[in-house]
């Protein structure tokens, strides 16, 4: 559809429409023209990732997670966060196994589970009082519903924190409750934290792997593309205990051998600089948080007075826009798709040249009606 109907603004896919920041651009130029880096063009490298990159990541995440991360044993560099998620699920999930996830969910996960013939078990995020959420952190999960979701077939719990698409950040109390159940049922936690620094309150993101007893059962996935607007370079990483990462490491080696060394060299240079600036006013991460907040508020203001309901995100880079109150003012008769969510998406694309993503793609079949006229 995007090829047939070029957009003026593509808000759906989440890729930046601007260059990476200057340090990243300088690193790209340095790698491209520096003769001392010839080896990155010549051959593949360590399947765990470039040693210098793992060392830089270990320094960064030792500070962020407030514990020592072993660069040689507890980090594996992957071909983007996608591959990290895929290899984690491929390593530990067999056909018929159940995986718990919170709804709305990152839709790619359901596709990966389908490839493994696994069974997704959905736990909805709702307001505790049944009222409409005004901001994403108004949403939580029913504690009894989560307890009931665990069975003897449950092998993994996937948590996207901060959540894509709605921007919820889970509280310490919520994460402790989740962790206690995972420990009780001996379940692996797959923590997707690619938006961990796209937050609006520096104290609001808690990493579940850092909570008591959780390190030994948690695989944390991160993305260099999301952190530094380098999506096209396809560099992500997984962090966790050596025994959980071993099969991921082997899966990577026997599929692609190693991630592009050129991409890794660029990211190494960027993270080494950020390690020096961490927690200072010059840190890119400080800028990222402020810039994300500024963009959120600007987009929120654009919807004022339109009748479109917005759940105010507490993190992330997306807005969840509900057109239900104004749908009768929109003529969708030209859109013949039987899926109503797609009809609105196609109308916005064709008539307004706005690229969006149908909101119902983040819900299970039984709950798609909750996002019938919602777009991300």
Give the low-confidence spans.
none
**CA(first)-CA(last) distance:** 16 Å
Number of strands: 13
Helix count, DSSP H or I runs of 4 or more residues: 12
SS-derived structural category: alpha/beta
Gyration radius, rounded: 21 Å
Q: Estimate the global geometry from the Cα principal axes.
A: globular
In CATH terms, the superfamily of the largest domain is Type I PLP-dependent aspartate aminotransferase-like (Major domain)
H/E order of the elements?
EHHHEHEHEEHEHEEHEHHHEEHEE
User: Tell me about the biggest sheet?
Assistant: 8 strands, mixed
**CATH architecture field of the largest domain:** 3-Layer(aba) Sandwich
Query: Order of strands across the biggest sheet?
Result: 2-9-8-7-6-3-4-5
Q: Helix fraction?
A: 25-40%
Q: What assembly state would you assign to the polypeptide chains in this entry? A: single chain
What's the domain count? 2
How much of the sequence lies in strands comes to 5-15%
Mean pLDDT metric:
88
Give the C-level CATH assignment of the largest domain: Alpha Beta
């Amino acid at each position: 559809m995007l090829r047939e109907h070029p957009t003026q603004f593509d808000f759906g896919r989440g890729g930046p429409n601007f260059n990476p920041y200057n340090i990243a651009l300088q690193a790209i130029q340095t790698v491209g023209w520096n003769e001392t880096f010839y080896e990155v063009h010549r051959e593949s490298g360590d399947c765990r990732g470039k040693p210098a990159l793992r060392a830089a990541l270990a320094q960064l995440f030792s500070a962020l997670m407030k514990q020592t991360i072993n660069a040689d044993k507890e980090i594996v560099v992957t071909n983007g966060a996608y591959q990290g998620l895929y290899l984690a699920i491929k390593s530990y999930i067999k056909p018929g196994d159940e995986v718990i996830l919170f709804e709305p969910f990152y839709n790619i996960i359901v596709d990966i589970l389908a490839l493994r013939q696994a069974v997704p078990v959905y736990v909805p995020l709702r307001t505790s009082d049944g009222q409409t959420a005004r901001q994403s952190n108004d949403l939580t999960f029913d504690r009894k519903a989560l307890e009931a979701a665990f069975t003897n077939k449950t092998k993994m719990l996937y948590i996207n924190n901060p959540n894509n698409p709605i921007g919820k950040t889970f509280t310490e109390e919520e994460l402790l409750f989740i962790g206690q159940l995972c420990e009780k049922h001996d379940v692996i936690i797959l923590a997707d934290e690619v938006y961990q620094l796209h937050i609006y309150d520096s104290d609001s993101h808690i990493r579940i792997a850092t909570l008591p007893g959780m390190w030994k059962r948690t695989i944390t996935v991160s993305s260099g593309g999301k952190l530094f607007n380098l999506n096209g370079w396809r560099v992500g990483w997984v962090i966790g205990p050596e025994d959980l990462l071993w099969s991921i490491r082997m899966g990577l080696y026997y599929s692609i051998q190693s991630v592009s060394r050129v991409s890794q060299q660029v990211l190494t240079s960027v993270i080494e600089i950020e390690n020096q600036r961490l927690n200072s006013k010059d840190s890119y991460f400080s800028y990222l948080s402020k810039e994300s907040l500024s963009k959120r508020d600007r987009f929120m203001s654009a919807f004022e007075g339109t009748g479109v309901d917005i759940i105010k995100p507490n993190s992330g880079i997306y807005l969840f826009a509900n057109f239900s109150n104004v749908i009768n003012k929109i003529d969708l008769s030209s859109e013949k798709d039987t899926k109503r969510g797609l009809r609105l998406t196609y109308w916005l694309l064709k008539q307004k040249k706005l690229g969006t993503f149908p909101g119902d793609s983040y819900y299970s079949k039984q709950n798609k009606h909750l996002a019938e006229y919602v777009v991300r």
